[in-house]
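re: that complex we talked abt at group meeting.

here r the seqs, copy pasted straight from the sheet so there may be weird spacing, ignore it
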Amino acid sequence: MIKEYNTIREVAGPLMLVEEVEGAKYEELVEIELPNGEIRNGRVLEVDRDRALIQLFEGVTGVNVFQTKVRFKGKGMELDVSEDILGRIFDGQGRPIDKGPKIIPEKRLDINSAPINPYARDYPSEFIQTGFSTIDGLNTLVRGQKLPIFSGSGLPHSKMAAQIARQAKVLGKEEEFAVVFAAMGITFEEAQYFIQNFQDTGAIERTVMFVNLASDPAIERIATPRLALTAAEYLAFDKDMHVLVILTDMTNYCEALREVSAARQEVPGRRGYPGYLYTDLSTIYERAGRIRGKKGSITQIPILTMPEDDKTHPIPDLTGYITEGQIVLSRAMHRRGIYPPVDVLQSLSRLKDKGIGPGKTREDHADVFNQLFAAYARGLEARELEVILGEAALSDIDRIFYRFAENFEQRYIAQGEDEDRSIEQTLDLGWELLSALPTIELKRIRPEFIEKYLPRFKKKEESGD
Amino acid sequence: MDQGRIIKVAGPLVVASNMQNAKIYDVVKVSDKKLMGEVIEMRGDEASIQVYEETSGIGVGEPVYLTGEPLSVELGPGLIQSIYDGVQRPLEKIQEVAGDLITRGIELPGLSRDKVWEFKATRKAGDKVQEGDIIGTVKETVLVDHKIMVPPGINGVIKKIEDGNYKVTDVVAVIESDDGKDVEITLMQRWPVRKPRPYIEKLSPDEPLATGQRVIDAFFPISKGGTACVPGPFGSGKTVVQHQLAKWADAQIIVYVGCGERGNEMTDVLMEFPELKDPHSGEPLMLRTILIANTSNMPVAAREASVYTGITIAEYYRDMGYSVALMADSTSRWAEAMREMSGRLEEMPGEEGYPAYMGTRIAEFYERAGKVRTLGSDNRIGALSAIGAVSPPGGDLSDPVVQATLRVVKVFWSLEDKLAYRRHFPAISWLTSYSLYVPNLEKYFETKLGRIWLENINRAMSILQQEAELEEIVRLVGLDALSPENRLVMETAKSIREDFLHQNAFHEIDTYTSYDKMSKMMEIIMLFHDLAEDALKNNVSIIDISELPVREKIARMKFIPENRIEEFDSLKNEIERSFKELKEKVIAEA
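got the structure back, here u go
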């Protein structure tokens, strides 16, 4: 029995206080009927004796304290799912906006799923080839991982994410990824870029999109990623699909969260973000993963723009503590015209060790990437010296590393928007670049691999000269 | 059963009225879903309750049931190899009853009630026993003899005791206590998590906890019974350091608390530990490990409880006379859980919104570590070492949690992202880390490895410090401006960094280094340095020295297996020969 109340006491910011309520539940879904008949959705944030504090997803414009009606729905927010959601576009609250038919639900799922039992998880270890050398070779992505892209305004993160969605595959298997895309507060052009991209490549057939644009209600964004992940969980664990979830832009999500927190006058943590931002973000990111005995998987690529490119800002900072690594984009590289402008030294994939090696990529992978990192880092140090003292002041060995770093950026990091490198190509390219260094400097590579792989490239170079 | 009524729900905080019979820190069951919670504040008959499970769907008017007991853990055989959530519910069992997701209101005992253990009595009827005395043992795993102790507070004469097969709740002995009552002893006892377990006295630490990690063991050792913290920004390798310690630390029992961290990381531990072999015993590491996993997306209040659950279990094994190491990753998440609850209680915040009592709680936690003389008449010595990771925002060490931790711990392993970017792992900075145990441990090292080890370590450290100073000069005027002696210092420092401090956790040999091998490695580096210094005096050029082919072998000495340690002698000979040849060449040219 749904009760209707017209005892609204207060409306302020995105919040509404209703009095004389009986039996309201925490997190319950609420329907608000405006005097003009418009229906809006909200959710209970707090119940205190006979008062219920409600967060309105679509804002408070036009709400009248005396003539608005409130109905408590007796359940939390749910998403209707069936296999027909593939290829469809929904708004930030899960309602179709592509003029297609309503989804006839096979199931209704609570958008806040319970945490996965760590004991039931399967460790992500299947290598995903993205076609990017910087990711495959150095920051390997595996199925079930959550690997965010830390970007800045104006950097080509969308281009990169779309390319990953296009190229991602697991070697030796023909299965393609289903893509769940959640847009939170991004511009129409950005959203359109993804839609167009998915349409052009035919990927739209296996894509579900949840779109909340910059002009859409901000508070709605709090629900959007949860809807997307609920759809992803359904596809992965009920329908055995491998799902790639792209969430963009998490910064807008966090700002919506801050708006609600500020309206509730909570004690703020850093930069006005609520103290529970970490916990809240974890309930999104931790929904990536694999479950033992289930075929499907959820791999997450959240995108966030770092305010002022500052990695210590609470949003990238707390994200980095939850996700399994990060791909950091660098403005300096972007200015030099390098695409993808990945800051290799700051990027990291924590799960790479399980996804690489014999049987997965190649036996020499771990050593090669260790060596490439170390050599590139040393090359950058030499570059610093060169800036101050000029190239002439560098020692011979420093000069070799200095050149290595240049080559590495131009040939290894940089690649075309349509260039889909195989892992073999990526690894061989690494060896080719390393062959320019004296063998004694290849300390991170096991001697047996040096013997096996290096001669192929050393020779090539000599004969090429 | 006593019953209250909910009047407010705000996230993990529930307020109930009609709770006059509740006590602070009593466990209660919230609503008919039986969600577990703990009373944290009382005002009149209104109790504030932190709920260990998700509270969505809970509303005003629902009942709260009192249990009259504080949050306690079950201590007995079966703890080892278990994986628990923050309030000691076995995750394996949860999966059996609830499937892949952790649903709500699951009530499960910490110890299996069905499993039968073979109890061997070590005392007999008629013996006089006191609290803490061992009355028998149970072989818990190949590695662990679980000692059944007389629970604290009980002294008397054994009336009955019998060998046999028992479940944890079966009575294995009866003690007639001094006040004339019969006390039944089972394999299992309960202990409230927020109360430290008693001991006779604390002792000062004098033995290192070998970890197999060179930078730690050589330069910043932690003692058995010591406390350490590992602060560092994300990506600097905190968790890898914690995992390495859990794998290789020379402790008999490991308690690993994953407090608000990643689910996949806990899975990694779960899948890897049963396969890894303990270097001391050759048995799987899991046979000495207890895991507590409260991942970041599991309820925040249970995260707050998880560190207490962990340290209480660790204290219990310490009481048996074992050396126990507890790793908590990460204590920042624990502090954040405190902050979240404090915010919901609308308490006046301290720094950065953390509650004013955070520092006290952290200090109390670390003070539960230590080397102690345990209860019991046999003068057992047990040690509990506690190592906490801290995740300061942006790696900023002025973070209140870091500062509160540094005030109590004695070892500081400072992880730097700058080192991590260069892929120097473990990324423990040799310039800012410290260990206050070094003076206590000197005597131990001197008898075990000789005076030379201490001297080499001191010299190596001073070379590293000189390097930091020289680097400034190089940055300004270039390497060529340095004198050959200073260039040698740079070369040796580089060798210490790359050939000694750098350690690959994922390499099958490099992942663990014994003190013996470590001292050999250090000797080689110092030998090279001494001979090079001497050669410089004999007009050998620094370029020739740095290009000696034997240096490649030095770079690879970390991969010499522990059982082929004699290879260091031939390496030594080769270094000596190389320098002799160099000198002869110079003389011949002259």
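couple things i noticed - The first strand of chain A starts at residue 4 and ends at 5. The CA atoms of residues 78 and 110 of chain A lie 4 Å apart.
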